[in-house]
Specification:
Elements lengths: L2 E4 L2 E4 L4 E4 L2 E2 L4 H12 L4 E3 H8 L9 H13 L4 E4 L3 E4 L3 E4 L32 H13 L2 E5 L6 H11 L5 E5 L9 H9 L9 H9 L5 E5 L5 H13 L5 E6 L9 E4 L19 H13 L7 H13 L4 H8 L2 H11 L4 H4 L14 H10 L3 H10 L6 E2 H8 L6 H13 L4 E3 L5 E3 L2 H14 L2 H23 L4 H8 L3 H14 L1 H10 L1 H6 L3 H11 L9 H15 L4 H14 L5 H13 L5 H14 L6 H18 L2 H18 L1 H17 L3 H18 L2 H18 L2 H18 L8 H10 L3 H17 L7 H18 L3 H7 L6 H9 L4
Parallel strand pairs: 9-12, 9-13, 10-11, 11-12
Antiparallel strand pairs: 1-2, 1-8, 2-3, 3-4, 5-7, 6-7, 14-16, 15-16
Helix pairs in contact: 1-3, 4-5, 6-7, 9-11, 10-12, 15-17, 15-18, 16-17, 16-19, 19-21, 19-22, 21-22, 22-24, 22-25, 25-26, 25-27, 26-27, 27-28, 27-29, 28-29, 29-30, 29-31, 30-31, 31-32, 31-33, 32-33, 33-34, 33-35, 34-39, 35-36, 35-37, 35-39, 36-37, 36-38, 36-39
Length: 834
């Protein structure tokens, strides 16, 4: 087969060898195949699709494998040997000829004179991972603009991306000009000249001398790390970039220069898998690929497999996909292992250190990179950045401004300073509406370190808690009237900030802790975090009494009655009474809600329940938000249903449904559950199931666990009453699993139905044990008299057990092994283990 000459190289396809001056050159199998395909089409565009098909046949590979192999070829053949056509493919620019048989090795090309333009920078580049699209995008920008600035956070890989682009450009004058160590703007022209191998005349205006020396040449100048010189560079770079025939400029910086005609390319961190992403897909994310590559280089026994993928994904997430942090972390794998590395990331600045490189000491360690960036900020910018570190999650601009403001920084200035930190890539502006901002986790740890060193951590956390309380008060006010989906989109991202504020204030500020708990209940409720909210009650209630306004105390007890409603009825009644008592005299809405909660949780005390309902209705105002009025109508329906007044219960249910439809689809679904309950209470099992079955499918899709759990309990009860044993077992298994995951305490209300199912299956001894435990469970939950549906179930169970076991069935049930809890009782009825 013919030997192919490519410039000074000989490529022999039959021997699969590449030589220069008779000496073999190792480029790797994939790179060799790529070069062979390009050599078959010299001077012609070869598409990426063709190259992928020829070099990786029948394989699915990451697209960034292709530019990585091209880059390795350029390092051997020369930077201009292969040309990128952005968005399409590659073209071999070097001269190509063919000859048969042995060919004499060409002489080595003459050395470039010392004064000739040259490229400076890293001689050996590692394979660039996950940046294929970034490389092509920046190359496309350079083709249309004279000045492109790559902007990004410390350690995100701005310099490495610029080096890769420099290695891929066409032949000509190029230079990488590192400016991190250049302290003065006056030294920049000489640094550029030195990188290009030029001599500058001694003139007062060194930039003008540089401009004349460059003449008509159009070198590509990569000015690396200019953030500390950015303001002073604006004028001279404007002149260079606008002169006809002048150089092309690729700049790396943490902030844009703000020059007219500048294209700013913001370099994002490497992609990381989300917390819910399947582990077997982790390797497809660039951050995981980079970590894996570097860890394997450090430890030849390292493998990314099913056991390690979850740990690697978590490490990559916690390091924000930051390439510098990932490389430093991967180097620690041989010593610590993945689990040890993950567990030590809270102390990442001491952990992720490496000896400083000779060219740029600030890239020697992650901490040094942030020290450099922080040192470029003004004192006011530093204070704002440090204080933002107390937010563990994203934050709104309003909350951030309230947190960082002080006597020297008002809210307006705080917003401006946060904007400057976004420009400097130290704060991330999230692409959501309304706008939210965040510090990457590594930046947040650095900010907390600075706060601690300055002795300002406690005051910053107090400010953050106050700002969070302000957010929660706004969320509470808007909860009753705002569209539910819009409300959740706006306030659900605050949940981690709320948790952090509650944790800190529980130890340091009892007054604010109680206030936070009170205003947080709509957020915990709509986020289906009932169990967490009840667990936090045990911590916060110990902080009472305190110097709180009546309204704050009323809202605290309002939260308690909401979380415990129909689950722990005695505590919910007690909390509702206190909430109504402490509500501000003029706050009729809060008193109305508390009285309705008191009525709902007093269903086994009819006189108390209807007295509370009557008082609440005297306060009711038809102009109130529909959500609040809907709650009242649903409570009315429940009370009238228990009393057997079906007509009035249906009337109240219809009102609730109309109000729910004006609120949101989610509320309409919740109101429809009440209609199912009403049909079942009226004895119409068929109608209840006809409505409930399709409703359950909708609730599963909507992800409303609380409403889904309530509906499943009704469906299970209806199937048990109707004798549909097989379907009841399926519904019961789903109910058991969902309750165990979300709210097992709610299962007490279906224990009678569970006993009836055991009876229907002929397991009367088990049914007796469950029926006895049902009485214990109802009493433990503060329910002394069952509702209408439960009474019907209980009567059926009692009749069947008396017929099967005799009038002493209760003694037989109590002699059996005691049941530990509702989950175990249901498992016994359903024939489940555990």
């Amino acid at each position: 087969m013919d030997v192919i000459r490519i410039g000074a190289f000989e490529l022999d396809p039959s021997e699969r060898s590449l030589c220069r001056a008779g000496r073999p050159v190792d480029v790797g199998a994939r790179a060799f195949d790529l070069l062979l395909v390009l050599a078959e089409h010299p001077g012609k565009l070869v598409s990426k699709a063709m190259l992928l098909e020829r070099v990786w046949p029948n394989l699915v590979v990451e697209e960034n494998n292709l530019p990585a192999q091209i880059a390795s070829l350029r390092r051997v053949l020369g930077a201009g040997a292969i040309r990128t056509v952005p968005g399409y493919g590659y073209r071999l620019e070097a001269p190509v000829s063919r000859s048969s048989g042995n060919v004499p090795a060409p002489a080595e090309p003459p050395a470039i004179p010392a004064a000739a333009p040259r490229r400076t920078g890293s001689a050996q580049l590692t394979v660039l991972v996950g940046r294929g699209e970034d490389v092509e995008a920046v190359e496309a920008h350079l083709a249309e603009a004279r000045l492109v600035t790559i902007v990004g956070a410390p350690g995100v890989g701005k310099t490495r991306l610029a080096e890769e682009i420099l290695a891929r450009v066409a032949p000509g004058s190029t230079a990488l000009v590192p400016l991190a160590a250049v302290a003065s703007i006056a030294q920049v022209p000489s640094a550029i000249a030195l990188a290009l191998g030029l001599s500058l005349a001694e003139e007062p205006d060194a930039f003008a001398a540089l401009d004349r020396t460059l003449g008509a040449t159009r070198p590509l100048l990569v000015l690396d790390s200019v953030e500390h010189l950015a303001k002073d560079l604006v004028a001279p770079l404007s002149r260079l970039a606008t002169r006809a025939g002048g150089p092309r400029l690729l700049v790396t910086s943490q902030i844009p220069l703000g020059i007219r005609g500048e294209i700013v390319y913001r370099l994002a961190p490497l992609a990381v898998p989300s917390s819910g992403h399947p582990d077997d897909c982790a390797a497809s994310f660039a951050a995981v690929a980079l970590f894996t590559q570097r860890a394997a280089a450090a430890d030849r026994n390292f493998r990314l497999d099913g056991a390690s993928a979850a740990l690697v994904a978590e490490i990559c997430r916690r390091l924000d996909g930051n390439p510098l942090a990932l490389e430093l972390a991967a180097a620690r794998v041989p010593a610590l292992g993945l689990a040890g590395l993950r567990d030590r990331l809270d102390d990442r600045f001491r952990l992720l250190k490496t000896p400083a490189g000779p060219g740029d000491a600030r890239h020697g360690a992650l901490h040094a990179a942030f020290e450099w960036s922080h040192g470029l900020l003004s004192p006011a910018e530093q204070r704002v950045f440090n204080r933002l570190g107390v937010f563990p999650a994203s934050f709104s601009l309003d909350a951030a401004a309230r947190c960082v403001a002080d006597p020297s920084i008002d809210a307006i200035e705080a917003i401006d300073l946060i904007g400057r930190l976004v420009d400097r890539s130290l704060v991330t502006a999230l692409p959501v509406d309304p706008p939210r901002y965040a510090l990457p986790e590594t930046a947040r740890y650095y900010a907390l370190e600075r706060l601690t060193a300055a002795g300002e951590l406690a005051s910053a956390r107090a400010n953050m808690a106050a700002a969070t309380l302000h957010q929660l008060d706004a969320a509470y006010d808007e909860y009753w009237s705002m569209d539910e989906a819009i409300w959740l989109q706006r306030f659900a991202p605050e949940i981690d900030n709320v948790r952090a504020a509650l944790d800190w204030t529980a130890e340091h500020d009892r007054t604010t802790a109680v206030a936070l708990y009170g205003s947080a209940w709509p957020l915990f409720l709509e986020a289906d975090l009932h169990a967490e909210a009840r667990e936090r009650y045990e911590r916060v209630v110990r902080l009472l009494p305190g110097p709180l306004p009546r309204g704050r105390l009323g809202r605290f007890w309002e939260a308690v009655t909401t979380y415990d409603s129909t689950r722990q009825c005695d505590r919910a009644r007690y909390a509702a009474e206190l909430s109504a008592t402490h509500a501000e005299t003029s706050d009729h809405r809060s008193r109305y809600y508390a009285l309705m909660q008191l009525a709902l949780n007093s269903r086994d005390h009819a006189q108390l329940a209807f007295a509370a309902l009557s008082t609440a209705l005297t306060l009711q105002d038809p102009r109130w938000p529909p959500r609040l009025l809907m709650h009242g109508a649903l409570t009315e329906a429940s009370l009238y249903m228990d009393r057997g007044d079906v007509a009035r219960a249906r009337d109240a249910s219809r009102r609730a449904m109309r109000l729910a439809l004006s609120v949101s689809e989610r509320q309409a679904l919740a109101a429809t559950v009440r209609v199912v309950e009403l049909d079942l209470a009226a004895g119409d099992v068929a109608a209840a199931l006809q409505l409930a079955r399709p409703l359950l499918l909708t609730l599963r899709h909507a992800g409303r666990h609380a409403a889904q759990l309530e509906l499943l309990m009704l469906i299970f009860s209806a199937l048990a009453l109707g004798g549909e044993v097989r379907e009841a077992l399926d519904a019961g298994a789903e109910l058991h699993a969902l309750a165990a995951q979300t709210d097992p305490g709610k299962l007490y209300s279906v224990l009678d139905a569970m006993a009836l199912l055991a009876c229907s299956a002929g397991r009367h001894a088990d049914a007796a044990r469950i029926a006895c435990y049902a009485d214990v469970a109802h009493e433990a939950h503060g329910v002394l008299r069952r509702g209408l549906i439960e009474e019907r179930l209980r009567a059926d169970v009692t009749s069947r057990l008396a017929a099967a076991l005799g009038p002493g069935w209760r003694d037989a049930g109590e002699r059996g092994e005691a049941l530990a809890d509702e989950v175990g009782a249901c498992a016994l009825a359903l024939g489940l283990r555990g």
